[in-house]
Amino acid sequence: MTDAPLSADAADSPDTPRRGIRSYVLRAGRMGTGQQRALEELGPRFVLPFTGQPADWSAAFGREAPRVLEIGFGMGAATAQIAAARPDTDFIGIEVHTPGVGALLKRIGEEGLSNLRILQHDAVQVLEQMVAPDSLAGVHIFFPDPWHKKKHHKRRLIQAPLVALLASRLAPGGVLHCATDWQPYAEQMLEVLSAEPRLVNTADGYAPRPDYRPLTKFEARGLRLGHGVWDLLFRRR
């Protein structure tokens, strides 16, 4: 979740030999002193290392609970709000941008949240190597980069290979929830998600915004300007 659509984007990158979709593009950002302090003090507890091996999430959280994974939480404001409202669910947030990681850690400390863990790594590799099949109660992808130009559409995160991977990691009944404020991307999302045989749409097209997804500042500003927002909720068969 982001206050601007920065984080959950996809691109082929020349600096890695790995082929296929990546879940991010690194962008510069400034670190505040509070974010830096949170990284130093809370990072060792709440930021998990990428191991390339199946994770023991029950050990990481210290309990057994439904788990929801979010790709690209941006500065983490809505992520923290969702986690605070759903204390019986554990949340795995993936974000590569260090200021966003620091910002969410700061909120974790201020709000005393214990049901959030962070990985600062490519979400595709995390899903492939650290998340077991049929294990997630949900996946959130809120306001991924729409890559407006046609020549960049191939860089969009929501593509058939990733959706197939996400579907394989959801438990039966688990929900993939995407949201975007760019209608052409919403249309592509609907087409791609509808084509995945393991997923079924929970609505007739786009879904109403669920109560658990709060409005971000960016989204609220767009709505005031007359911009649309489209939520898509697909359930694993």
UniProtKB/TrEMBL annotation:
Alphabetized Gene3D superfamilies for the sequence: Vaccinia Virus protein VP39
Residues the record lists as binding S-adenosyl-L-methionine: 70, 95, 122, 145
EC class: transferase
SUPFAM superfamilies reported in the protein's UniProt record: S-adenosyl-L-methionine-dependent methyltransferases (SSF53335)
GO cellular component annotations of the record: tRNA methyltransferase complex
Record keyword Membrane present: no
Highest taxon above the source species: Bacteria
InterPro entries xref list: SAM-dependent_MTases_sf (IPR029063), tRNA_(Gua-N-7)_MeTrfase_Trmb (IPR003358), tRNA_methyltr_TrmB_bact (IPR055361)
Residues reported in the UniProt entry to bind substrate: 149, 181, 216-219
Catalysis performed (reactions): guanosine(46) in tRNA + S-adenosyl-L-methionine = N(7)-methylguanosine(46) in tRNA + S-adenosyl-L-homocysteine
Alphabetically ordered keywords of this record: Methyltransferase, S-adenosyl-L-methionine, Transferase, tRNA processing
GO molecular function: tRNA (guanine(46)-N7)-methyltransferase activity
Cited Pfam families: Methyltransf_4 (PF02390)
EC number per UniProt: 2.1.1.33
Metabolic or biological pathway, per its Swiss-Prot or TrEMBL entry: tRNA modification; N(7)-methylguanine-tRNA biosynthesis
Oxidoreductase is among the record's keywords: no
Role description: Catalyzes the formation of N(7)-methylguanine at position 46 (m7G46) in tRNA.
Family: Belongs to the class I-like SAM-binding methyltransferase superfamily. TrmB family.
HAMAP family recorded: tRNA_methyltr_TrmB (MF_01057)
Protein name as annotated: tRNA (guanine-N(7)-)-methyltransferase
Organism, as annotated: Ideonella alba
Gene that encodes it: trmB
